[in-house]
Specification:
The complex is a heterodimer.
Chain A: E1 2-4, E2 8-9, H1 12-27, E3 31-37, H2 43-54, E4 60-66, H3 71-76, E5 82-87, H4 96-104, E6 113-120, E7 134-140, H5 147-150, H6 152-157, E8 160-164, H7 176-186, E9 191-194, H8 203-225
Parallel strand pairs in A: 3-6, 3-7, 4-5, 4-6, 7-8, 8-9
Chain B: H1 3-21, E1 26-33, H2 41-51, E2 61-65, E3 70-73, E4 79-81, E5 97-101, E6 105-112
Parallel strand pairs in B: 1-2
Antiparallel strand pairs in B: 1-6, 3-4, 3-5
Classes of the chains: A alpha/beta, B alpha+beta.
């Protein structure tokens, strides 16, 4: 009888590929967002608003993850941006290998901001590093205050949390102050931006955050090359 | 059900390693699945049981340890368990913590011949 001390992570293989993606994005000076969130929370609507605002200053690319359909990618077609559709055929998350394939189909050298829209799911995508620069998640006020407690890993992983559908808040019992307090306990360094992507209310805050991040990335690259 | 993906990854790692080590039958696997790894132990057991049909895994026992979430404060250096998802130091209210256990997901060891 032999004992083999393997000490091997089940996500190690994905981690290696994610690091390769990260290098690929770095070489091409791309700021990459892994956009995760609740199904129906408005991920695609938020993305549409962001593209409308930022496309004058930056070249934007999108990797659109979806279980079966191309509906979200079709919504983005009108912006005439580079977009690639991934259909996971039922798989609940995107992984690094799938993202590599999609990324190589994009003109990465021309892209400043790449948004990877993950599968709407608060559990599985949290564990899979895709090689992104930042994890951003979207939830909405209609989902209630308890979500961070129910899905702590996802809320721990996100650098920015977008609370959408602010226009509906008066019809719900969602307490934004309480949410801020709760989230501060779970993820003290996370930033929260509450918006209504539908009406555009407070989208300037999100757009400004993204603008400065993408700009910073470009600058970091410029000084690195010197 | 990302546990299926993870069980598949576990199967691959074990098959490769057993091949390297010249092991033809694995009798026991020890997996470590932290409290906040995001993976359900029962689900990964179930997924693995569906996949491990090769002779290499005949009557294998999959044991899973579930370490609790614990952190070390970067300020006061105290070590404590994290309860109720509170990621703030209970001693000095510092928000910069190093998670020392509870998020891991790895094969620790296996036994075979």
């Amino acid at each position: 009888m032999a004992k083999v001390d393997l000490v091997r992570g089940l996500l190690d293989a994905n981690g290696v590929l994610a690091e390769r993606n990260r290098e690929l994005f770095q070489q091409n000076k791309v700021y990459v967002i892994n956009l995760m969130g609740v199904p129906g929370s408005g991920k695609t609507t938020v993305l549409e608003r962001v593209i409308e605002f930022l496309r004058e200053d930056f070249t934007i690319g999108v990797i659109e993850g979806d279980l079966y359909t191309t509906k979200d990618a079709e919504r983005l077609e009108r912006f005439n941006i580079s977009a690639v559709q991934i259909n996971t055929q039922g798989a609940c998350h995107l992984d690094a290998a799938t993202v590599t394939q999609a990324a190589l189909a994009l003109p990465l050298g021309e892209i400043d901001l790449l948004v990877i829209e993950n599968i709407g799911n608060l559990v599985c995508p949290a564990e899979f590093d895709l090689g992104e620069t930042a994890k951003v998640m979207v939830m909405s006020v209609t989902e209630g205050n308890d979500k961070p407690w129910k899905y702590p890993l996802m809320f721990r992983e996100a650098e920015l949390i977008i609370v959408n559908k602010l226009d509906l808040i008066s019809y719900t019992n969602f307490d934004l102050d309480q949410f801020n307090k709760d989230l501060h306990t779970i993820n003290p360094s996370a930033k929260i931006i509450a918006v209504s992507a539908l009406t555009g209310h407070r989208m300037y805050e999100l757009n400004a955050w993204l603008y400065s991040k993408v700009k910073e990335k470009r600058h970091e690259q410029a000084s690195f090359r010197m | 059900m990302h546990e299926m993906y993870l069980a598949e990854s576990m199967l691959n790692e074990l098959t490769l390693s057993a091949d390297r080590e010249g092991i033809t039958h694995i009798s026991k696997i020890k997996l470590v699945n932290g409290e906040l790894s995001g993976v359900n132990s029962e689900a990964i057991k179930f997924a693995f049981s569906l996949l491990c049909k090769a002779d290499l895994f005949k009557e294998v026992i999959l044991e899973i340890a579930e370490p609790r979430l614990a952190a070390c404060c970067s300020g006061c250096k105290k070590v404590f368990e994290i309860t109720d998802c509170s990621f703030i130091c209970p001693y000095c209210a510092n928000e910069k913590l190093e998670i020392i256990s509870g998020q891991e997901l790895y094969i620790d060891y296996y036994e075979g011949e």
